[in-house]
Amino acid sequence: MLSAQTISIIKSTVPVLEVHGQAITTRFYDMLFQNHPELLHIFNHVNQRQGRQQAALANAVYAAAQHIDQLENIMPVVKQIAHKHRSLGVLPEHYPIVGSHLLLAIKEVLGDACTDEILQAWTEAYGIIADAFIAVEEQMYVEAEQQSGGFRHFKPFTVINKVVESSVITSFYLQPLDGSSIPPFTAGQYISIKAAIPGEQYEQIRQYSVSNISGEPYLRISVKREDGGNYPAGKVSNYLHQQVQIGDVLPISAPAGDFVLQSNNKPLVLISGGVGQTPLYSMLSTALAEQVKRPITYVHAAINKEAHAFVEQLKQLQTEHNQLQAYVCYEQPTENDTLHVDYNKAGYIDLPWLRSIIPTDADFYICGPLPFMKAVYHMLTELGIDAKQINYEMFGPALDISTPALSV
């Protein structure tokens, strides 16, 4: 337990963290990787270059300081991060390394404003926070290991099939190399793949949503090839698309994540953009199989039909299930798309169209690029939908999408 004085000191640093938080976490990562380059085997290098990891950590530190006297208030965030840590293989021995470098970064960035009293208070607070993470993550490791077909860390899986789903998305079907059973998962969860890419100094770990339903004799991931554009080309996605073939072996983690389909009688609305359809397609397939009386509206946005995965499968599902209404929005439909009426709307999802096709008394799940999710989230709130009804998944470090919408 932290003393009242320590809690008071930590809370006094909240305004400072609001201003200098990202500078602290940026310096933290610089020093961490300089002194412990072996940790580059765990962290996503692209998120580091884009600053998303630094921003996410700054938000987490800020929240911890705000709620240091009631840490139970941030347990949902702790569990969300713990899912990521478990899937990456973060271990208890990593926490002292992280703690020492975080304190060094605080001292360096704040300078004389960081007194010995403040540094000691943060040392004590970090110990409490680290213990909470370690305990939650150990429980998750145990649960992952003890379930049917379970395992604790990474396990080799064989690629048994590779299917091109669209011009940019390819599915990989995975089975355990040792012939053991597939661990169960909840629709919406992801696995981590550890890639040893030829010519790269460090292993790369990436999370990919499972796109099939639990109970099948394989895990399927459907991966978008990231060719660059506004961001660096995806090393792992290009490695998977271009080099990994049927028969190859990939180390993967057991399924993880808390963005999962809940079972109830309320209507279900799934809204995805681009490759954000992968966890939602698993949710859609699961809901149709297990929640047969639940009304479902599925809305997907893509560039055009060429980039849209699972097109024919979605049409078949809509034919077979009266409970499903599916809508497709193509940003730049081709002439062929228009000729065959393969979409419901051209351009972007907008508020009037969304209002005309979705119920408001529903559970909402959204996934896609960050600008897409921000825009959809704010359209939903403009329709009077409570934030508690809206669930979303972030590819990469968790950020808040309730801030003002970005253009899409």
Automatic annotation (TrEMBL):
<keyword id="KW-0274">FAD</keyword>
<keyword id="KW-0560">Oxidoreductase</keyword>
<comment type="function">
    <text>Is involved in NO detoxification in an aerobic process, termed nitric oxide dioxygenase (NOD) reaction that utilizes O(2) and NAD(P)H to convert NO to nitrate, which protects the bacterium from various noxious nitrogen compounds. Therefore, plays a central role in the inducible response to nitrosative stress.</text>
</comment>
<feature type="domain" description="Globin">
    <location>
        <begin position="1"/>
        <end position="138"/>
    </location>
</feature>
<comment type="similarity">
    <text>In the C-terminal section; belongs to the flavoprotein pyridine nucleotide cytochrome reductase family.</text>
</comment>
<keyword id="KW-0408">Iron</keyword>
<feature type="active site" description="Charge relay system">
    <location>
        <position position="137"/>
    </location>
</feature>
<keyword id="KW-0521">NADP</keyword>
<feature type="site" description="Influences the redox potential of the prosthetic heme and FAD groups">
    <location>
        <position position="393"/>
    </location>
</feature>
<feature type="domain" description="FAD-binding FR-type">
    <location>
        <begin position="152"/>
        <end position="262"/>
    </location>
</feature>
<keyword id="KW-0349">Heme</keyword>
<dbReference type="InterPro" id="IPR023950">
    <property type="entry name" value="Hmp"/>
</dbReference>
<keyword id="KW-0479">Metal-binding</keyword>
<feature type="binding site">
    <location>
        <begin position="206"/>
        <end position="209"/>
    </location>
    <ligand>
        <name>FAD</name>
    </ligand>
</feature>
<dbReference type="Pfam" id="PF00042">
    <property type="entry name" value="Globin"/>
</dbReference>
<feature type="binding site">
    <location>
        <position position="190"/>
    </location>
    <ligand>
        <name>FAD</name>
    </ligand>
</feature>
<feature type="site" description="Involved in heme-bound ligand stabilization and O-O bond activation">
    <location>
        <position position="29"/>
    </location>
</feature>
<protein>
    <recommendedName>
        <fullName>Flavohemoprotein</fullName>
        <ecNumber>1.14.12.17</ecNumber>
    </recommendedName>
</protein>
<feature type="binding site" description="proximal binding residue">
    <location>
        <position position="85"/>
    </location>
    <ligand>
        <name>heme b</name>
    </ligand>
</feature>
<dbReference type="InterPro" id="IPR001433">
    <property type="entry name" value="OxRdtase_FAD/NAD-bd"/>
</dbReference>
<dbReference type="InterPro" id="IPR017927">
    <property type="entry name" value="FAD-bd_FR_type"/>
</dbReference>
<keyword id="KW-0561">Oxygen transport</keyword>
<dbReference type="InterPro" id="IPR012292">
    <property type="entry name" value="Globin/Proto"/>
</dbReference>
<dbReference type="InterPro" id="IPR039261">
    <property type="entry name" value="FNR_nucleotide-bd"/>
</dbReference>
<comment type="similarity">
    <text>Belongs to the globin family. Two-domain flavohemoproteins subfamily.</text>
</comment>
<feature type="binding site">
    <location>
        <begin position="274"/>
        <end position="279"/>
    </location>
    <ligand>
        <name>NADP(+)</name>
    </ligand>
</feature>
<feature type="active site" description="Charge relay system">
    <location>
        <position position="95"/>
    </location>
</feature>
<keyword id="KW-0520">NAD</keyword>
<dbReference type="GO" id="GO:0008941">
    <property type="term" value="F:nitric oxide dioxygenase NAD(P)H activity"/>
</dbReference>
<dbReference type="Pfam" id="PF00175">
    <property type="entry name" value="NAD_binding_1"/>
</dbReference>
<keyword id="KW-0813">Transport</keyword>
<dbReference type="InterPro" id="IPR000971">
    <property type="entry name" value="Globin"/>
</dbReference>
<keyword id="KW-0216">Detoxification</keyword>
<dbReference type="Pfam" id="PF00970">
    <property type="entry name" value="FAD_binding_6"/>
</dbReference>
<dbReference type="InterPro" id="IPR017938">
    <property type="entry name" value="Riboflavin_synthase-like_b-brl"/>
</dbReference>
<dbReference type="InterPro" id="IPR008333">
    <property type="entry name" value="Cbr1-like_FAD-bd_dom"/>
</dbReference>
<feature type="region of interest" description="Reductase">
    <location>
        <begin position="149"/>
        <end position="408"/>
    </location>
</feature>
<keyword id="KW-0285">Flavoprotein</keyword>
<dbReference type="InterPro" id="IPR009050">
    <property type="entry name" value="Globin-like_sf"/>
</dbReference>
<feature type="site" description="Influences the redox potential of the prosthetic heme and FAD groups">
    <location>
        <position position="84"/>
    </location>
</feature>
